[in-house]
Amino acid sequence: MAVRVLAALMFLASLSGARFAATSTRDFARHLDRQVHDIHCSFIPGAAEPDAGAATEACRATMMSPYSSVMRTDYWGGIPVSLPGLGTFAFLAVWSVFLFAFAPVAARTTGLWTVFWWLIPTATSAYMGRLALVELDAPCKLCIGIYASSGAGMLFALVAAGLTWRGPRPAAFAVDPD
């Protein structure tokens, strides 16, 4: 039962991360035409900041930095790093539904795979967070939302892995020695 609760929490964390990543990707795509558009720099994804204060400027600096996209010379503006993040969080949402549905018969390896899948956005968030704070000195609220979603999902994944590892082996996976 506890694994199901953790799977539901991982689902919410992945939806939150996907929403932040989608908003970031949309803002990046809208700024490719070099026109001034509203930046949705807020802890509420999609909500614009009321003024063009330091928070909005931090998001603009992060979005326009060379770290915000890859293959800038090959494609116009490059591919924003939030786009694969969006795909990763979408996959994690589906994986969480799988874990929720099959929690009673979850094998030990399921918990380990869950940690592995959540390690991808967590490691990326740690790297990008270091870049934002050390290199750019511009903490973006959307990015912080992605980092928090990744960290929360990883925490839930670690607890779920611990429960599946310590728990009894389900009968469906037991091997009869006779």
Give the topology.
Layout: H1 2-30, H2 54-63, E1 69-70, E2 79-80, H3 82-101, H4 108-135, H5 141-166
Antiparallel strand pairs: 1-2
Largest beta-sheet characterization: 2 strands, antiparallel
Unreliable stretches (pLDDT < 50, length at least 5) are: none
- Describe the strand arrangement of the main beta sheet, using strand numbers: 1-2
Nearest-integer average pLDDT? 79
Distance between the termini: 31 Å
Determine Rg (CA atoms, Å): 19 Å
**Secondary-structure element series:** HHEEHHH
Helix content percent band: 55-70%
What percent strand?
under 5%
Principal-axis shape equals elongated
Number of strands: 2
Quaternary organisation of the protein chains: single chain
Total of DSSP H or I helical runs spanning 4+ residues: 5
> What would you call the structural class?
mainly alpha
